[in-house]
Amino acid sequence: MQNKNIPTVALLALTLFGSCSSGLAPVAENAVKPTVVTEQTAFDTDDPAIWIHPTDPSQSLILGTDKEVGGGLYLYDLSGKIVKKVTGLQRPNNVDIAYGLDINGKKVDIAITTERKAHKIRVFSLPDLTPIDNGGIAIFEGERGEGEQDGMGISIYTKKDSIGSTIYAIVGRKNGPSGTYLWQYKIGAGADGIVTAEVVRKFGTYSGKKEIEAIAVDNELGYVYYSDETVGVRKYYADPEKKDNTELAFFAQQDVKSDHEGIAIYKTGDSTGYILLSNQQNNSFVVYPREGSNGNSNSYTKLADIPVSAIECDGADASSLNLGGKFPNGMLVAMSNGKVFHYYDWNLIQERIDKGEGK
């Protein structure tokens, strides 16, 4: 990622304009400019998640990881200011958010991040960012191969029914066997208020080419997508109770320069919208229809490949809610080199999709 010895001013310049001398692809002249660039973290940003305020969306917050030993989780407001942080974690990688975990009869919003070098997931209540996991929950227990306990990607699936909801975390890692690369954990809480996790499923084809980091769940439609880096995006059912580990689609195989990275889902209706995939070495996002059908990977046709100012984007998230101010139709949040995250007014992205840019 970025050179840690580059001065702050130079890093911010890299974030917005790129660098040819560093060996990275430069930001395209027609790249979408960020509406907001966050304040910097200490080390190396990696993955964001959007927390929606329960009563006032304009007070929503952006959560992001600072991926290094000693790094942590940062909370930003919609102007990019750091409002809270937790540091001293052992290389936190990816993060996602769940709403309404039942803890002794109280509904609590939570953030779950992978703590890669500790071989744990960490759980924090929101928006106070207080740890509620007694120091962390061990993951990939019993695995012994190199990198097979190093948690990286994570995404949350919440299954709702007539009596409530069940929260699951789908976790990826640095390395693992094809067929059981991803482990799915049921999230709960004990009488002491400490969050727990139980393995309920192991699944996921892996090419062995690089790694699986970016994971995204379409909660309403019940699907999980993940980036098999340098190969493509794979789709599965998110509900472990289906007991169906059939790969439903495998797309984006020809559309990315090198690494398939962050995945964000922007919803325009109950079953419509877009899947956005970070084309990392191209400094762009490839856009696919959310409506792609199972058993037909060709239904995930490329709608656009949009150049952005974010450099080598690892992680991304999106929301279609009116967040007020600069984001009336929501936003795309993207990690960028330079220890920052970029917020893009969705209207800027939609304009490029409508034009079919880079198709």
TrEMBL record:
Residues 1-25 form the signal peptide. It holds the Pfam family Phytase. It comes from the Bacteria. The keyword Signal applies. Keywords: Signal. Residues 22-353 form the BPP domain. Gene3D superfamilies: TolB, C-terminal domain. InterPro entries: 6-blade_b-propeller_TolB-like, B-propeller_Phytase. This is BPP domain-containing protein.
